[in-house]
Amino acid sequence: MGPGVLVFTIIVLLSFVLGIYYSFTQWNGVNKDAVWIGIQNYVKIFSGDKQAATSAIFTAKFTIASVIIANFLAFFLALALTLPLRTAKVMRTIIFLPNVIGGIILGFVWRFIFTNSIPTIGDLTGIGFFQLPWLGSPATGFWGSVMVFVWQRTGYLMMIYVAAIVSINGSLLEAAYMDGASAFQVLRKIILPLTAPAITICIFLALSWTTKMFDVIFALTGGGPFGSTETFAMNIYYQAFQYNNYGLGSAKAIVFFIVVGAISTAQVLITKRWEVEA
Amino acid sequence: MSARGYFPRLLFVELGVLIVALVFLSPFYFVVANSLKPFGQIIKNAASLPQSLDFQNYLKAWNTVNFPRVFLNSVLVTGFSITGMVLLGAMAAWRMVRRPHKASGFIFIVFVAAMVIPFQSVMIPMVKVAKIFHLLNSIPGVVIIYFGFGMPLTVFLLHGFVKGIPRELEESAYIDGCTTFQSFFRIVLPLMRTVVVTVVILQTLWIWNDFLLPLLVLFSENLRTIPLGIFSFFGQYLNQWDSALATLIMGMVPIIAFFLVLQNYIIKGITAGSVKA
Description:
The complex is a heterodimer of chains A (278) and B (277). Chain A has one domain: MetI-like fold, CATH 1.10.3720. In chain A, a hairpin with an 8-residue loop joins strand 1 and strand 2 (35-36). Chain A is 76% helix and 1% strand. Chain A contains 13 helices and two strands; from the N terminus they run H-E-E-H-H-H-H-H-H-H-H-H-H-H-H. With 277 residues, chain B is mostly helical. Chain B folds into two domains: 7-54, no CATH class; 60-276, MetI-like (MetI-like fold, Orthogonal Bundle). Chain B has helices spanning 7-35, 39-44, 56-65, 67-98, 104-114, 119-132, 139-162, 167-175, 180-191, 193-209, 212-217, 226-236, 241-261, 263-276. The radius of gyration of chain B is 24 Å and the shape is globular.
């Protein structure tokens, strides 16, 4: 076994196996021994843990809204920015820029904007959208989180769509227009089928970012108000490292692994089938 | 589309995109403009331009966060993690392709499967494992932990590339008297250059910006990376927006500079990397 495989085995695989064991125990992380309690942790997750349910529902809604909005926006921006615009390159750079910055920084940036700049704009303009209590209610916390995610990640998805659209043979499009196809027909019959693999990739990436979302929302809302914007990943973190329930936290981590794994596998299978049909 | 795109139509699209880009840029405006104001002015009007350029906030932020220290820590952690990851990953990928063992195929599948394990699914026991192996609260420790987590993607990307290198190249090197070691470093590794750039870029963006992993394994103040430094600043000075905004700007400047300088490589790297992943 080479050193790379060895380190991976110890850090990732050993942890993973150990995590399965801890998920059947009660352990505060400090005591030497974890106490075996069978499936009690799992029972608790699915029956008595209100905050876990809230987090799971928030993560699901956040995932659905963010994946759809970010991909639509990214795709249309990519369509626009593959036209011969004078500013195309600068615009791509600007829209991509948030991706290189850390989630913690972005979360704090937007916390400031939501709690200070947007209210100021609301006072000055009187526009209702800016006068909402941003991050102060479950609904504005939710849509605020979605907005920040879309702002952060659209550029990344857009770049993948741009690469896919650019690689379409230009003469194919020209021939279609010569034959009298409308822009919409070209989009539907040529661009969409030929960018199908990129759509699969982008949905996969967006799913993997949103289901595992931690740092941006951790800094943006800290899960508030009243735990309404707590992601499942944050719930695992708090369970283990704030409440010192390492056993219950580990059980949540395993459930999380199974759900995230199932979602990404299902998505790849479904969109692959669609790619063939499209 | 270009065949038909006559000018007014393109101008319309151009304006639309310009508006989107301004919206995308606006957060930077708010943060930069307010970071130059005294606290009272931020509270009064958090949308206006500053009345004068006041770098007082930056001075305070620089000292409170101990910026040179956190910056150096981020450079060390990212630099060593990635160098090691690429070397170990390239060796592992090369061995799997060139000296396949019965277990090689299995190990590769495990690597690929591990890419779907969310970090949060293993973080709790990982802290325990790190403690057993004395990897907690040290920069070499966190670097080794990153080797572990970075190995799957690294090996996955390099593996696909090594398969495409003709075996004859290495064989002729052996005939010329190269050792395995020499042929790896002199022939294989240089040939991998393009895919190594992809790996370096993807992993740099990850490790430089990573927050949760270092939060769990680095505790001492003098080991903090940039994200940890910023986080603890906010823990202490919640809503002290004057210096907090300056901290955020300082935190993002290095990686933005990195991006602007290497923009073309980065865009190519992420599109190449995502196509394979």
